[in-house]
Every structure is written in structure tokens, then in C-alpha cells.
User: Fold these one by one.
Assistant:
Number 1:
Amino acid sequence: MVTGASSGIGQVIAIECAKMGANIIATGRNEERLNETLNQLEGSGHQMIIADMSVQEDINALVEQCPVLDGLVHNAGTAVGKPASYVKLEDLQYVYQTNVYGVALLTKGLLRKKKMAKGSSIVFNSSISTYISAAGWSVYASSKAAINAYMRTCALELGTKGIRCNSVVPGMVETDIINSLFFTDEGNQSSMDQYPLGRYGKPADIAYGIIYLLSDASTWVTGTELVIDGGRMLK
Amino acid sequence: MELTKFIENFAGEFDHTDASVFTADTVYHNLDEWSSLIAMCIASMVEDEYDVVLKGDDIRNARTIGDLFNTVKAKM
Ligand SMILES: NC(=O)c1ccc[n+]([C@@H]2O[C@H](COP(=O)([O-])OP(=O)(O)OC[C@H]3O[C@@H](n4cnc5c(N)ncnc54)[C@H](OP(=O)(O)O)[C@@H]3O)[C@@H](O)[C@H]2O)c1
């Protein structure tokens, strides 16, 4: 299952996992774009389920409808960019509901209904913003830091069931989210200069790391954060 | 929505630029203190005060404070 499979990184995760032979449950809110994802998946046995991660009933329905899973990617996420002095309760609720509460409630639902198979893997999509601060991203960065801490606790609790939990920590990846990020051209260029490999990431750069964490190549890996950032953390 | 008040709100986001510098014709991209953080503060101020959500492009494309005032007005 890939959440946020209707766009950006999530769409490519679904496509690349299908190439590796996975049966995909693609979920998201936008039916049209989810269909586009589904149409690009190799092989058969894939399905899409529309669900809003900020709505408990949708999460319940998603859990009900899905089969037992070998892998889950918590990828759906959203952001608000504004300075701390302007952050409102609504901003916190908007971001946390999807990025944190949705993740915790979907995990809980799947575990309670025994929908995570023994030996399965859960991957969380965090962000480098938890380590490298950028002005204006307090709400987003703190939501992603919460996810890493949540992931580690789950890894500890679920070890005995053989369920592994890990995060990927991506640097800047070229998707719709970042098109809304920059308010000045200089901001965009000076940010790219910070990447030793000279470019922002592509969705596939992140998808391959996630595939590693989902696959049996990582059966002894749990509770870790895999940084995929073109070297940004070196600066 | 009033231009003078808008200019005053705009100027309020700067810490080191004298208030007298800000007029409708000020090309804000050229101000020494202009930065991506101030741009973000202006967008947040506009959302708070005028209930208008500005995109990165709106702030990049407007040249003067007067232009930005017109952008905001058009979105109200
Ligand atoms: N791009 C980057 O630079 C970057 C860096 C680090 C981490 N990340 C993380 O990577 C993940 C994917 O982001 P992206 O860059 O691919 O952005 P994106 O293209 O905007 O995709 C976001 C996805 O999340 C889904 N989503 C958002 N809110 C949702 C909700 N309430 N319920 C269900 N689905 C929801 C969207 O689904 P619908 O469109 O169907 O609503 C969409 O499929 C996010 O968690 C993001 O924080 C991105």
C-alpha cells in the first residue's frame, strides 16, 4: 500500500514497486490522478482506494477494504510555509492531521485488524527539514520530526511480530510541493547550491531507497532513517 | 482595501529598512533587506490581513508594492 500515490514521489513509488512485482494498493484523494497512477502500473492485481488521511472514517474504510499487506509506505503529506509568528491553529491542524495523525491512525487500524503480515515492512516518508532548518517551515519540519520518533517507537514495539519500521529522509525533490515553496528565484538557486551532487532529487531517487527498505534486502534493518539527499547534509 | 494601509503592513515586515523608503513605486526586490524569508512573511501578512493566499509567482512577478497591492486586490 502506498499512500499519496496520486502524485509526485508516491506515484513513482507505486510504479517502481509494481515493476519489482508488487501488487499495489494505491491510495490518495484525487480519483483522476490515482487512475493515472493505476494505468502506469506494470502487471495485474493492483487496485486504488480513495481515502483522505485526515478523515477517520476514510481511514477505517481503507483498512476494511485492503487485504493483508506485505509493505506499507506512509507517503501522503502536506506542507504549510509561513514564519512561526504567523502560524495559526488551523495551519497546525491542517498539516498534522495528514502528516502525523493520519499516519498514526492508519498504522493503528492496520495493526488492530491484523492487516500487516508477519515479516512486513512499514516505510515512513520524513524529510531532511527535521535536521536542516529552513525559515518558514516550523510546522512541516516538526511534523516530520514527529514521524521519525513515532517510527522508532513502532519499530521497537513491532519487532517481535517481525514487522520492520524505517524512514526515508529525502532532501529537496522536484514535485508539486516545492513549486509552491519558493517566493524568490534567488531562494531557489541558493538552495540548489547547497547540494553537492548539483541537483535536486527526482522521485525515483527516493523510490529506490524505499524499495530497499520494503524488500528482503533489508530484513535486519529496523528503526533507521535512510537519508537520501544528494549530499545536502554534508554542508 | 486601502493602499496606504497596505504599504504600512508591507513595511511592518522589515526590521532594518526605514519606513520612509516604502511607497507604491518601491521596487521591493531591490531592497537590501529583501529575502526569501521576508517574501514569506509578506505572503503570511496578506493571508492574515486580507484573507488572500499569494503564490510564489505572485510575489516574484509583481515589481512594485503598488503592483502587489493590485494583485491582492484582484484576488479579494
Ligand atoms: N518534494 C520534496 O522535496 C519532499 C522532500 C522530503 C519529503 N517529502 C515528502 O514526500 C511525500 C510526498 O510528497 P511529494 O513531494 O510527492 O508531494 P505531492 O506531489 O504534493 O504529493 C503529495 C501526495 O500526498 C497526498 N495527500 C496529501 N494530503 C493528503 C490527505 N489528507 N489524504 C490523502 N492523501 C493526501 C496527495 O494526494 P491527493 O493529491 O490525491 O490529494 C499526493 O498524492 C510527502 O510526505 C512529503 O512531505 C517531499
Number 2:
Amino acid sequence: MKARAIHLVVNGEQASGEVMPRMLLSDFIRDDLALTGTHVGCEQGACGACTVLLNGRAVRSCLTFAVQADGASITTIEGIAGPDGELHPVQQALRDRHGLQCGFCTPGVVVTACALLRDDPQPTTQAIREGLSGNLCRCTGYQSIIEAIEQAAAVGASTSADGTVA
Amino acid sequence: MTTTTDPVIQLEVGSGGGLIGASTPRKEDQRLLTGHGQFTDDLHVRGMLHAAFVRSPHAHARILGIDASEARALPGVVAVVTGEDLAKLTSPMVVSQEGAHPMVMETLPTAKVRFNGDPVACVIAVDRYVAEDAAELVDVDYEMLEPVLEMHAATDPGSPLVDEGLPSNLHTRQTKSYGDIETAFANADRVIETSFSSQRLTHVPIEGRGVLAIWDKGRAELSFHSGQQTAHVTRTLLAKRLGLSENQVRVISPDIGGAFGLKIPLFREELTVAAMAMTLDRPIKWAEDRAENLMASNHARDDSVSIQAAVAADGTILGIKAELWADYGAYAFYPPSYMIDVVGWLLLGAYKIENYEYTINVAITNKCPAGTLRAPMAIVTWATEGTVERIADELGLDAVAVRRRNMIRLEDQPYRSAPGYLYEALTLRESFDEALDRFDLEQFRRSQASARGEGRLLGVGLATVLEPTTYGSAWYKASGDEGSGHEAATVKVEPTGAINVMVGIIPSGQGYETTIAQVVAEALGSTTDNVAVRLGDTHIVPYGMGSRGSRGAAAGNGVAYLAALTARNKVLRIASHRLGVPIDSLTIVDGSIFVIDEAESRLSLADVAWMCYMDPTSLPATEAPGLEVHQTYDPPELTFSNASHVCVVEVFRDTGQVEILDYHVVEDAGTLINPMIVDGQIRGGVVMGIGQALYEESIYDDAGNNVTSSFVDYLIPTADCVPNIRIHHVETPNPNTPRGIKGMSEGPVQGGIASVALAVSDALKGLGVTVDQLPLHPSRILGYLRAAGAQDD
Ligand code: FES
Ligand code: FES
């Protein structure tokens, strides 16, 4: 196996690396780019903690090889809040509604919710529940996450985010 | 530093700033929401190596030899070690239990493997990919042994021994008897029998176990970075087992991605990594993968309860006999009797029953070892409430009336339960009544009947929960288990008035950084923004017992509150001296010290703090310099909270699916510090209970292979299958704890299991079905309906 060079844009900045073909995107983001906000909860594609936006689409970075992201634009949890740390409406709503406890699932929840609200700015509760059904949370019982996403939708989260997410 | 172990609880109310009881947004959220939390696997240090474990593919086999030559030859592999190597570097774990044989667990097994997933060797390599490749190349020669897979059969003559150091696979059999059980049964109009079995399941924090161990050769110190609920106890064990002095070990628990009782023991993998970091003088990290977590961390709940209830025709419960069984798995991480015995002494629940006898049986089998999963006694509420329902059914009485007839009321307390526990300020009956005020049962019965008429199966489950939250050291002494229930805090008002607080409890989602800031700010008349809470680092935090049970509020927040009150008293003594006014005329609000009724503050908390450090000669002669308080607090033997749950379900005949239509909780956790956080604990706990009632199960096949090693096979609740939960708080303060705090977080699991299971049972009532085994997944429900001939085809 030979390492391959990849070039991509991560949270609006150029990034590149030399990766083995089998390296997972999640490992590349966490270990090579030191963006450890993207969490790994299963490496089985089931928990959603590793969700990132790849060319705007929510994907599981544990099911994606780093080489597949060559040339792509990626948004991770670190790219969601404003540069001064100002919370995105989805993040703010999760804080207001106590939509996180341990916070391990939270990056995946935030990224998934941002993509969901961009595609469906006024989702029904059922649509939110279904849209989040691939993000496992062992702490909250989900209700507060669902309510938070409803709150974010109510304040127009899909249009108030920075360009990459909205 | 002032050191106090004040046996008198200071019930003095702080500044009355209203911080206790406020749903303050959490201080920890900013970092967690923006990807700046720091979890174990996020840590990275120069020269770090990675560990992977070789695990047994068999349930029970003798290790004849391990050939690691091929693995060692793989480029990037630094070391491969086995149980034989680790036996030279570490000492084994010995778990003793009063009146029973101690159980010994080697760091890695040398003679045989005892369950599918048992670690047999550890590979250390430059990265995890290489470590895992090499683990595949380690060749272990096994001689297969017959596995012991069924707890009741574990004692069959001829059954092989799981642990050859024990005389039998039945490790524990103990009977405890209270009152006059013979007479109770002799006088009974009826004896009603029930049984309840829970499936084996596991904790499933979304972050698995892991550790980064760093050996500092120059200082001869080990730092052990790992999400640990009881970091100090882990430190003590690590030092002992590595042959180090306790002051050579530092345990640092970073952010923890969920724990639920899993992250308490010192796991063998973690100890191995620490020993190898020392031996190789290289930092080593291990992060378990999901398959390891599901197969080989800890399991729980593999237990059953059979009850005989002696009752009078009017529904009075005269006595209970119970036979309890627990499948403990292959090794002991805790005294084997510990968890199942809690089921025993809690089984009388909310009811006044004086004559009681229970027998516990703990079997050792070739399965993953048992641990303490949030509410280790979780089956208990279902067993108690299910029995009361059955009594009502069989006597032709109303189940609500039977409950009320036997329930303990507030006015009956202080009440001592048959097994000897003191109940105080519990609203078992009153919260039950409150729940039925909020949920119109009569109305539901009418809808249920008309739905039945249309062929639909609706049911309601009522469950009154008695939750033991906080164990004092007296409990440990009485139970014969090693340990203590006290807790410790240090409150430092720094020279500028900024406050640092260190407490021995360790959060994994409970928001302690916020709640402790609330109680300390309230006691000291400060603001939560001015209080930084530092937890989980044994170098800076005083020795505490960590987070287990539901002790965080009463013990952990309680001791921080008491320490802050001690600091407050010092501040006020100094201010009184300085201002020449009596101490009881002073108060502190938002960091300013006021003479009560004066509009202008004359001195600030920061002024006094500055004086304490930088100008101590100005202090009264009786005051020592500095403004740091170290305090310990030993809570009462046992503190309880209570709740009542109501769950409404529909069971679908054609698919066997269960849908939860409505869910209510009335919770009495005494004084609440942060109601928003308590609500989060209730919702998360109930959903964990729903998971157990309906979905989750760790399954072994006939050969003892774990067939649930991924999230495809092991199902936890998802966002689209859980209900909204309506919560009402009753706040009855406990008279014996700081501020009347009781604590909670395990009760919602107990109530969730019970109310869902009873609702399903109610939905199937009249169909000849007895719901006695979890989980109630579609195939089990369809099986019930088929057996009863009640399934639509
Ligand atoms: S880590 Fe990628 S889905 Fe779980
Ligand atoms: S907040 Fe802990 S897993 Fe979701």
C-alpha cells in the first residue's frame, strides 16, 4: 500500500495530507488535521457521531475513505459556530433546551440538524425525529434535541448560518 | 487550609440568591457544542503508540500456547504481550465478599479464556491500523472446553467450572429473613406467584472505554488519562496493581462521553496499557471499538425474580418470599452479591410489608462479566409493581386500590423497611396520587375498552419508584462491601475573588460544572460565572468516591455547598471584624458584602479574599491566612427519592410492535439544584428503560458466541421511536441532607422498564398472556399472541 496525496478544503481552509488508501476520513480529520470535534462512536456507520458535511451533504466520515474526499469541501463541527465562537442557532437551541448531556453525540447531531434544516427549513416534528434517527444518543432521550431543532427552525436557522452551512 | 469534617449539617441558607433551583444553562455546553470538548481519544502526545487486543473467539477454552512471532515481525509493531508477561508486571485483582470465596482475575488470563471476547494478548504498534493487523496475526492454540451458559444449570453435577479457583459455579447463595414469614404465609387467604426475567444487556455509552497512559521516567510518575467515574479509587487500584506508590500515579478523567456505571472498574485492558507504557517508556493509547464495547466491557441485568406473595382477601400484603438469580458472567469486577442483593432489599418498594424473606443466587458463567449499569437493581420496580397488579387481578380487586391499601404515606415516616432502611420525606403515596390527578385513568379505561371493541390493544402501566440515591459510609460498613460513601471538596476563593472548586465526583453528562457552580455561588453570595469547577484530576481534586449511583447531587454538590458555607462564614467573620458590625447583620450578594438593609455595599468578597492572602496581618487574630476550605461530608446511611410513572402503549397485533402513546413522570427528588438538568436525567433514564423494555439484548448462541457485537444487532432507542415525556416535580426536602437535596437519575430507568412492561401486559390482558420476560420486541409479542391464539392472521 502506498500513501496518496489528497487536497481538500476543510471549514473554508485549504488542507492536504499523505494518506494510506485505507485511512478513514474520520481518522484523517481527527488525527492528521487535529479536528477532534468529529467523534467516532462505532466505526460501523450506525451512530452518526462522525457526521460531517462533504460537499454540503451529511456523510458518515467513518464510512468514507480519506482518499474519497480528495478535492472535496468539508465542514466539521469546528466550522459551524462563528469565528468568535458565536453559536449557530442550532447550537444555541441545543444549549437552551438542554439538548446535550455528555456531548459525545452532539457534533454529529449539530451537523445533521444543520443539513436537515437547510434541506427542509420548516420540518415537522416527525420529519425531525426521522431525520435524527441515525444519530444515537444514550443520554438525553432525544426529546430535548427534537425541541431544540424545532426552536432553531423557528428562528430561521437555515438562513442565518455562515455560507458553508446555510 | 481549613479542614473540616463537620458532622452537623449546616442548614443555614446562603445568600438566598435563588441559584439553587434555577435552570441555569450549562457551563460545559460551549465547548461540547463547538467540537472543543476533550475526550480520551482526542488526546495526542508525541511518540504515542497504540494498543489493540487479541480476544478469545471461544466461550471457554484452555490456552495451550500463544505464537506472536508473525505479529512481532510486522513492521510498526513494537511489542506483543500476554498474560504471562503481565503477571510479572502487575498483580491480579482479588474481589472478596463476606462469607464467600474471593474471586481472582489476572491482568490477562494465563491458563484459559472464559468468554467470547476475553482479552488474551495485547499488541502495541505505531498506529491502530498496524496494531489491529498484528492482532490478527497472533496465533493462540486453544483446547476447547464445554461452556457454561445457563445460570440455573451452572450448578449441575458434571458442569465444568468456569473459575477453577471456586468450588462451584454457584458463587453465592444467601437467604435473609425479616419479621415472621411463616405466620404471614399461614394466615394468608391466598398465595400469589409471579416471576420476572430481564435480558442481559450492556451500557453502550456512545464513547467507548479508552486510556492514554504516559510514564514520566524522570519523575517516575504515571499519568493515566481515561474517562473514569471514580478516578481516585482507580488511582489506588492502579498503584497497588502496578507496585507503585499512590503518589506516583495521577488519574485524569477528561470529558467522558457517557458512562452509566460502565467506567468504574479498573479494566484489564487499561491496566495492561499502563503497565506497557511503563515498560516500554512510551505513551500508549487504547480506544476500544464498538464490537469490543458490546462484547467485552461489562454486561448487566441478566437476572430474574420469582415472588410468592401472601395476601389477605382485601388485598393487604402480609408477606413476601422472593428467589433472586443473577448470571454474573465469567469474572468478578464487583462482589458478586452486590447488585442482586440491592434488588432483594428494595423489592418491597413503596409498600408496607413487614414479613419478608429473600434468597439470592449468583452464578458464574462463560459470558461477559457483569457490571453496574445505571440502576443495577433496575428489574426491581417491575417485579414489585407487577406483583401488586397480579394480586389485584387474582383477587378481583382494583390495582390502584390495592396499591393505596399497602402504600407508605408521608405520615407513616420516618419508616423503617423490613430490611432495615429508613425512609424519610418520601411521597410514595402522594406522588402516586398526583400522577393519577394528572392522568385520567377512568377516561383511559373507557378509551381502552372502546379500542378493544375495534380490535386495538391499548394498555397503561403504573409504576411507583423507590430510588436509593446516595449511600453513606454506614451503608458500606453494614453491607460488608469495601468502600465509603463520603465525598470531599475544596473551595478556594482566590486573591482576586475568583472561585475555584474541586470535588471528587466526576461528570459524564450530569452537568456538575454548572450545578456545583450554582450551589457554591449561592452559598458564597457569588455568581455562577465567577465559579470554575475542576473535576476528575487526582492531582488537584481531594480524594473522593467519584460518581456512581445517584450520589452526585446530595454527596457531591452537597459537600461543595458545605465547603462554600464554611468559606462564607470565614468571609463574614472577617467582614464583621473589619466593619465593626455583628456577623448576623451581614450578607453577600453577587460578590458584594452588605449590612442588611443598607443600599450600598461596604466591602466586596474580593476585598476580603485579597486581605486573606496579601494582607493577613489585618485579619482578626483568630483567622489563619488564605481563603481555602477543604471539607468532607459523609451522607446518611441511605438517601432515597421517589417517583411515579404512567405509560400508555398500543400493541399492534399484526406486527407485534409496541408504540408508546403517552408518558408521565411525577418525580420527588427533594430540593432541585437545576430542574432543567433533572428533567434531562428523567428523560434519558426513561428512554434507557424503554430500551430495556422493548429493544436491547446481548445474545449468546448455543456455543457461547456473542452474536450482538454491532449496532445492527444491538438496538438502542432512536429518535423516531421514543415518546415525549411529561414531567411534574414534587419537591419534598430530605431533613438530613444539605439543603434537602435527595438526588436522582437511576429511578427513571427503573420506572421506564416497569411502566412500559406493565403497559404491554395491560394491553394484552384477557388474552391469556403472562408478560414475564424482557425485551418485549415484536417477535416476543407475536410469540405471546400466537401462543394465546390471539394473533390476527
Ligand atoms: S462512528 Fe461513524 S457512524 Fe458511528
Ligand atoms: S449527549 Fe451523551 S450521547 Fe448524546
